[in-house]
Amino acid sequence: MLLHLLNLLTQSFVAIPMALGSTWLGLLFPLVIAAVGEVIGIALFGLQSMRQNWKKFTGVGFAALWVGYTSLFLWCLVANVYSDHMNLTSKARSLRQSLAESENGVNAKLQALAVSKDADIEKLKISCAYKEGASGILQQQLTNQQNQLNTCLLQQREVPIIKAFPVFHISSEHNDAPRVEYVLITNIQRSPVDLIAKCDAPIADGSLYPLTATGGSVSSLGKKRLSAEKLQFSLRSPAWSPSAPVWITMFFVSPINREPHCEFAVE
Asked: Which of 39, 75, 82, 255 is most buried when burial is the number of CB atoms within 10 A of its CB?
């Protein structure tokens, strides 16, 4: 505070000649002229006369000078105070305006950033919803396909399937009786088995042998002719299973000049 007061007084003192549109030399010049005038007065009127009246004249002159310069100093002091006040007010106004502009700029940037981020968030929500929907659809499709596959596998296990593969054929041109040999497989275990062979040529006879991994023999096998082209096999043991196919040989009545065909079914 004291430093500011000293600076204010100094600036006011320096501003005195500027207030008069002059310099310190211009202010001292009247004093020099007054002193020279006093010297000339001594020379003209004598020292004795000047001594009698110098206090009166000199005092009045210096009093006028003191009043004038003191008033000028006070005027400069008030002017400096007012100038500092105006400068501070202007700087404060400028700072407030700059702060408001900066705040508006920051708010505008934040608003633009918020709008941009909101748009990005909406895009991400839409993308996530689309991906979740696509994932849900794919998951549903996979579930449906798995259910269909499970159903097919279950049906395959439940529905009896018999496949016959002809592996050997002898026609009536040979000395042996014409015959066709088949390997029959099934998808489920069967016991007992009633197998009907239906052929497109008259049947002379037939035989059935299970192909077991242990090489066991047939303990109970029966045959029954149903018609000239149909023959029934009855197998009680061993069981007919996917790992144990059966070997069937079908003999036909001679003569026959073509390869006969047979179909097999289980009752």
From this structure: 75
Which of these three, 90, 124, 159, is where a domain ends? 159
DSSP codes, the chain: -HHHHHHHHHHHHHHHHHHTTS-HHHHHHHHHHHHHHHHHHHHHH-HHHHHHHHHHHHHHHHHHHHHHHHHHHHHHHHHHHHHHHHHHHHHHHHHHHHHHHHHHHHHHHHHHHHHHHHHHHHHHHHHHHHHHHHHHHHHHHHHHHHHHHHHHHHHHHHS--EEEEEEEEE-TTSSSPPEEEEEEEESS-BSSEEEEEEESS-EEEEEEEE--SS-PPPSEEEEEEEETTEEEEEEEES-BBTTB-EEEEEEEPSP--S---EEEEE-
Alpha carbon distance 112, 106 (integer Å): 10
**Block residue for tokens 């010297």:** 39
Q: Give residue 55's pLDDT.
A: 64
Q: Of 100, 128, 159, which one is at a domain's C-terminal end?
A: 159
Say if CB 153 and CB 210 are below 8 A apart: no
pLDDT at 171: 64
Same domain, 86 and 22: yes
Rounded average pLDDT per 10-residue block, the chain, 267 residues: 70 64 62 65 66 63 65 74 83 88 88 87 83 79 81 60 82 68 89 92 91 64 91 89 89 85 90
Which pTM value belongs to this model? 0.41
CA 1 remoteness from chain centre: 60
Whether residue 116 sits in one domain with residue 29: yes
